[in-house]
Amino acid sequence: MGRIAGRFTRVEPRRRIRSLVLGLLADLPRKNCWTIAEWAGEATPDGMQHLLNRAKWDADAVRDDLRDYVVEHLHDDQAVLVVDETGDVKKGSHTVGVQRQYTGTAGRIENSQVAVYLVYAGRRGHAAVDRELYIPRSWTDKPDRCRAAGLDPDTAFATKPELATRMITRFLDAGHRSPWVAGDEVYGGNPKLRTALEERGTGYVLAVACNHEVTTRAGKFRADILAKKLPKRAWQKLSAGAGAKGQRFYDWAHIALPDTAPGHHHLMIRRNRTTGELAYYRCYSPQPVPLTTLVRVAGSRWRVEETFQAGKGLAGLDEHQVRRYASWSRWVTLAMLAHAFLAVVRADEHTHQPGPDDLIPLTCNEIARLLIALVAERAHGTAHRLRWSHWRRRHQARSQASHYQRQAAAPA
Length: 412
Hints:
Elements lengths: L10 H15 L7 H8 L5 H8 L5 H15 L6 E10 L9 E5 L4 E15 L2 E9 L3 H4 L2 H6 L11 H14 L6 E4 L1 H4 L2 H9 L3 E6 L4 E4 L2 E4 H7 L6 E8 L2 E12 L6 E8 L6 E8 L5 H10 L2 H13 L9 H28 L11 H13 L5 H28 L3
Parallel strand pairs: 1-5, 5-6
Antiparallel strand pairs: 1-3, 2-3, 3-4, 6-12, 7-8, 9-10, 10-11, 11-12
Helix pairs in contact: 1-2, 1-13, 2-3, 4-13, 7-9, 12-13, 13-14
């Protein structure tokens, strides 16, 4: 909190931002301005809502502080920047960026809001360091709709790979270094993103579809056709890193691809040792690297799923109930900050205070429990609980009456 305090000119928002971030880490059944304000001991949610909506502070500046904080404490010369998107299912049509679209969260097409995140993944831990909201054409083609949600009416449509390029460029332009980028097929299939990374001298291991075409010395082939041509000796059993059930072993092969541009290009293929299922990756490195390095980078992509799971489960990343863009960017930035704090504490504890052999190392979940129980637990009396019960019922009664009035006034 001291690190970002300078972003707030008044003491009141500085104090409230601390309460909000602690509330994001608290063990609340739902995390929004109402529940966090009640937990923090405030009389109404007005102050929290003002902080997210109308208060004067720059969420992008806090994002930059967060990025510096994560890199400083989780620094790794071989860190991987992982790009991926996640969606939040929403109701209605007024929440910024919402439309019917596919989201992996639901596993199907839903009315949802999708954002692209950049995760810093190193040996000491991982945390999100940047975010961009995906604004579909159904919004950018309607300036009035953008204006109503707090977006610039001239907001231009940007694809998810373009948003990823924007965040990676921001990371590198800030003076930070990461030799590798990883991502799924959405990003690996985009030649502009690959070219942008090569121009910056940044290596990548990006998944591509089975029908992705590559040029070899023998001509142009689909990735799955090339895989069938590989001899048995081309495959190596290697681990993509440790998972919940031990090392994740696969069979791997790679094919050098000729290219007029500098650097080294490969098509890498992963084969499941049980099912035989294949996955394909476009790879680039400024200098020659062994297959084990490419496999390690490919395995780092799973860290983004762990980041999403922890960010949503521990820090309320997906529980925002806001409609405007400024409120969304502030909420997710603070949720990212809350999770980053847990990741940094975990990394420091593992390094400086390793536990006994009969205990697993401290997890982010356990650190959050201890923090709230021992440091930040709020105890409020019956009067406070009753006041909030009355406030909620009064607010809901007004909302109900307003809804009935609009319904009655609507044409038959």
